[in-house]
């Protein structure tokens, strides 16, 4: 990581550089989906992206740095939070977004590959943690707004409420294999909103 807090390749470029980055990140996605982290070979990524190997090695340097940049790009491209003025509805939108992402054939496979890689690679794990921290930061304000409206008590930990929405969904996705659909999403959101209103997440 550089002094500016960016992993290699993380500064959003423009023009030809942006096209190269897009092509390389797409190739990295394909490799992760098809082969897992072991398939993220920089020379192979360069071939898939039709980019010079020197460019890829100079810009990213390691497969870990490339996957970290991919996760940063995913965070930047993620859908912004919904603000309806009702906590349960906001959390429902969050839960449905998670379910729609995880059940998408391409995105679901990509997340499984990245999560699997993160279990044995420290840099990938750190990048994954940053990705989810960014998503929690994006959605936490809907809980703070609910507190201000009186829907949840003062001192409610907004980040914990957001985590409570998605945790059961990831459990089904990664562990139990139980059905994952919008009905499940809505139930998870309702449970988190009810618990928040009852004070379960007060710090």
TrEMBL record:
Every HTH tetR-type domain range: 18-78
Assigned keywords, A-Z: DNA-binding, Transcription, Transcription regulation
Q: InterPro entries, alphabetically?
A: Homeodomain-like_sf (IPR009057), HTH-type_TetR-like_transc_reg (IPR050109), HTH_TetR (IPR001647), Tet_transcr_reg_TetR-rel_C_sf (IPR036271), TetR_C (IPR011075)
Q: Which PROSITE patterns does this UniProt record tie to the protein? A: HTH_TETR_2
Which SUPFAM superfamilies does UniProt cross-reference here?
A: Homeodomain-like, Tetracyclin repressor-like, C-terminal domain
Concerning Gene3D superfamilies, the annotation shows: Homeodomain-like (1.10.10.60), Tetracycline Repressor, domain 2 (1.10.357.10)
Segments of the chain annotated as binding DNA: 41-60
Which Pfam families does this entry report, sorted A to Z?
TetR_C_11, TetR_N
Protein name, per record: TetR/AcrR family transcriptional regulator
Give the source species: Actinomadura sediminis
